[in-house]
């Protein structure tokens, strides 16, 4: 309970410090931080359309956040979410546009299967290479991001038949056949890009929570992530579990790609680099510090910042990029939680001393415990 | 084109594309020999590119042909500053190395474009006027055949990158500093027992990687990209990291691997002029180096061992 409280404190303080640092940057460059953040908030929540946009942006972030979380539980660092998402995005749109004669229910289902499948394969490959050959999943997933980027871009420009293309490097809109936009939601939010994706993301969150907390697979993944040797000794097939975890992680990122393709954008177009949404999922998972509710809340925060940030230049002149800087700083503070841990520690021991209830050695014991948890995290 | 001309073109383009990778990959090997994984090379290169372009645009008209060279130094200093952040986070504040490196990668392009908008009021800079061009090396270019292949239409900073790789090899494997750095990356406990300052040595390793990575980014900007925008560096830092691993954490290996990546990058640029290769769809040329990295990592992993304590925070027990 104590550690959970600390994690929440670290997350909240990191957001606070990130925003303060952003304010200092604005001050330094001659912008008014109050006007800057004011314009951020007013553009994020000012119109129903932008509120819809926040939900739309949240959708893939929740899914990639979950994706990172599942891999992390198995002791993996999945940096390939961006590529896994892009593969699924292109695949799902391709399917949806290629078979317009099918009933739309079948199109959506088929496109989802194709997308999630591609994401799962993109997660399976690094999973196998790490589990069977010991190759670093960090490097493999980074390399796969580029492989997928070039293959997918090539698929759009020279693979897609002209009949499903709008321009040389973008596809037609999925539109009424394979789209997952909901009319009542779009009408409610003044035709924002919100779609049924948000419900898919919430359902996926509940499902993954159930899998991770209540099933043997979830238990195995956690055991392998904590200590692969001990898990093996306890009779868990640690390699198969690792591969399953990476495949599941890839599938979740893939689902994020499907919602981008059929929901948020409704089409697919050539990218300069693999979609940033994939990388931001890592940020979301880190800020959510391993909790499912945390992931959803962090995704909401980042989406609100991004949507609000887009409106900042027009109202207060602050460049949009400030938001990316603030988000990166928030992750920096979460990542260096040690600093905040020490701070909380100091405040607590000061409290103890003032109330004369200090039993002695509290600080040292906590420090040692901290060092141990850090060590554990490294393994 | 004659065979010799094609070969000369291929070599000169390869060496120009590989030099930024080589500087950065060699830098990365310093960091990792000291035990700090540096996924942030991409961000370090981005800041190097940003600062050298801003410097170049500002002082180009006063400094003339010297501008790009001083630009490299500016990139080095800025790279150093960014690497210091990574060292602070990983060594002093015990952050996860990959998280910290990712933060560097996230913050660099955002900060770069933010500052470009503050300075120039638009999202990307103009083209620079003073760039590294092609030049002939005096005397050496007169050597028959070899001169034409290696010393005509080449670039000085590219030749410098080879020199730096050799020098770095010497520093890491033949000097006292190198021995100490490696011992900190292999077994920090033992190094600590022998009275070495683990934290200090790790800082030095990371800072060297920032210095060289900054030069790499600046060189890429001033010889290939020629301006700064959000996508200027687009993956060069990650390729450098792959080159470093491909080269087995050995500076000369990293340099050779960079040349290989440089070759395949240049093929997708000049491939259309070369027989046989022009028939291969460009997408295969684009993904080839990445696929090969994956294959090599998988097959030869047993032989490509990272320094033992690479990525492990050292916490001195109280």
Descriptive overview:
The complex is a heterodimer of chains A (379) and B (318). By secondary structure, chain A is mostly helical. In chain A, 78% of the residues lie in helices and 1% in strands. A two-stranded antiparallel ribbon of chain A has the order 1-2. In chain A, a hairpin with a 2-residue loop joins strand 1 and strand 2. Chain A starts with a helix and ends with a helix. By secondary structure, chain B is mainly α. Chain B has one domain: ABC transporter involved in vitamin B12 uptake, BtuC (Orthogonal Bundle), CATH 1.10.3470. Chain B contains twelve helices and no strands. Chains A and B meet through helix 6, helix 13, helix 15, helix 16 and helix 17 of A and helix 4, helix 10 and helix 12 of B.
How is the topology of this model organized?
The complex is a heterodimer of chains A (379) and B (318).
Chain A: H1 2-28, H2 33-45, H3 48-73, H4 81-98, H5 104-133, H6 137-159, E1 165-167, E2 170-171, H7 175-178, H8 183-188, H9 197-214, H10 216-226, H11 228-233, H12 238-264, H13 276-287, H14 292-316, H15 321-335, H16 337-354, H17 362-378
Antiparallel strand pairs in A: 1-2
Helix pairs in contact in A: 1-2, 1-15, 1-16, 2-14, 3-9, 3-12, 3-13, 3-14, 4-5, 4-6, 4-12, 4-13, 5-6, 5-12, 9-10, 9-12, 10-12, 13-14, 14-15, 15-16, 16-17
Chain B: H1 3-33, H2 41-63, H3 67-92, H4 97-120, H5 146-151, H6 156-174, H7 176-186, H8 188-193, H9 198-225, H10 236-246, H11 251-270, H12 282-299
Helix pairs in contact in B: 1-6, 1-9, 1-10, 1-11, 2-3, 2-4, 2-9, 2-10, 3-4, 3-9, 6-7, 6-11, 7-9, 10-11, 10-12, 11-12
């Amino acid at each position: 309970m104590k550690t959970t409280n600390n994690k929440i404190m670290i997350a909240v303080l990191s957001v606070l410090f990130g925003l303060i640092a952003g304010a200092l940057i604005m001050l330094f460059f001659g912008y008014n931080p109050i006007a800057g953040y004011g314009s951020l908030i007013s553009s994020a929540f000012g119109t129903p359309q932008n509120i819809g946009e926040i939900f739309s942006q949240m959708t893939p972030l929740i899914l990639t956040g979950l994706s990172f979380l599942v891999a992390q539980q198995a002791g993996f660092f999945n940096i390939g979410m961006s590529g896994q998402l892009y593969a699924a995005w292109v695949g799902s749109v391709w399917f949806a546009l290629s078979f317009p004669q099918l009933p739309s229910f079948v199109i959506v289902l088929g496109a989802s299967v194709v997308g999630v499948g591609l994401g799962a394969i993109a997660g399976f490959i690094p999973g196998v290479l790490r589990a069977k050959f010991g190759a670093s999943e960090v490097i493999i997933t980074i390399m796969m991001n580029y492989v997928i980027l070039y293959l997918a871009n090539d698929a759009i420009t020279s693979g897609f038949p002209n009949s499903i293309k709008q321009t040389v490097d973008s596809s037609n809109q999925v539109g009424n056949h394979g789209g997952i936009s909901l009319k009542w939601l779009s009408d409610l939010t003044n035709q924002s890009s919100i779609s049924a994706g948000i419900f898919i993301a919430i359902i996926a969150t509940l499902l993954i929570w159930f899998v991770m907390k209540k099933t043997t697979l979830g238990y195995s993944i956690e055991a392998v992530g904590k200590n692969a040797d001990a898990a093996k000794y306890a009779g868990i097939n640690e390699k198969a579990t690792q591969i399953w975890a990476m495949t599941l992680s890839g599938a979740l990122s893939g689902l994020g790609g499907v919602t981008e393709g059929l929901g948020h954008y409704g089409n697919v177009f050539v990218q300069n680099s693999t979609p940033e949404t994939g990388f931001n999922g890592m940020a979301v998972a880190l800020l959510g510090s391993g909790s499912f509710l945390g992931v959803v809340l962090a995704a909401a925060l980042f989406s609100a910042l991004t949507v609000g940030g887009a409106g900042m230049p027009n109202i207060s002149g602050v460049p949009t990029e400030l938001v990316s800087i603030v988000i990166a700083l928030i992750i920096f503070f979460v990542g260096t939680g040690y600093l905040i841990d020490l701070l909380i520690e100091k405040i607590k021991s000061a409290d103890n001393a003032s109330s004369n209830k200090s039993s002695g050695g509290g600080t040292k014991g906590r420090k040692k415990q901290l060092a141990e948890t850090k060590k554990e995290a490294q393994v | 084109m004659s065979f010799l001309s094609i070969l000369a073109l291929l070599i000169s383009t390869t060496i120009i594309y590989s030099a930024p990778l080589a500087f950065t990959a060699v830098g990365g090997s310093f960091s990792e020999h000291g035990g700090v994984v540096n996924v942030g090379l991409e961000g370090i290169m981005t800041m190097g590119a940003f600062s050298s372009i801003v410097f170049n645009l500002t002082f180009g008209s006063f400094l003339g042909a010297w501008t790009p060279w001083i630009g490299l130094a500016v990139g080095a200093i800025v790279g150093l500053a960014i690497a210091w952040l990574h060292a602070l986070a990983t060594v002093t504040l015990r952050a996860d190395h990959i998280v910290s490196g990712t933060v560097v990668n996230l913050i660099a392009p955002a900060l770069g474009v933010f500052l470009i908008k503050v300075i120039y009021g638009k999202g990307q800079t103009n083209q620079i006027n003073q760039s590294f061009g092609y030049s002939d090396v005096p005397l050496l270019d007169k050597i028959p055949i070899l001169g034409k292949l290696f010393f005509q239409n080449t670039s000085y900073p590219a030749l410098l990158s080879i020199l730096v790789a050799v020098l770095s090899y010497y520093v890491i494997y033949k000097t006292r500093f190198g021995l100490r750095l490696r011992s900190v990356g292999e077994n920090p406990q033992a190094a600590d027992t022998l009275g070495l300052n683990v934290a200090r040595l790790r800082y030095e390793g990371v800072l060297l990687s920032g210095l060289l990575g900054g030069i790499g980014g600046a060189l890429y900007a001033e010889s290939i990209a020629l301006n700064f925008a959000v996508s200027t560096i687009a993956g060069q830092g990650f390729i450098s990291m792959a080159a470093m691993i491909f080269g087995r954490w050995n500076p000369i290996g990293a340099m050779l691997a960079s040349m290989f990546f440089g070759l395949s990058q240049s093929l997708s640029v000049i491939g259309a002029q070369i027989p046989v290769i022009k028939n291969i769809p460009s997408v295969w040329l684009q993904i080839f180096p990445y696929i090969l990295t994956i294959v090599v990592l998988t097959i030869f992993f047993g032989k490509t061992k990272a320094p033992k304590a690479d990525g492990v925070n050292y916490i001195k027990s109280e």
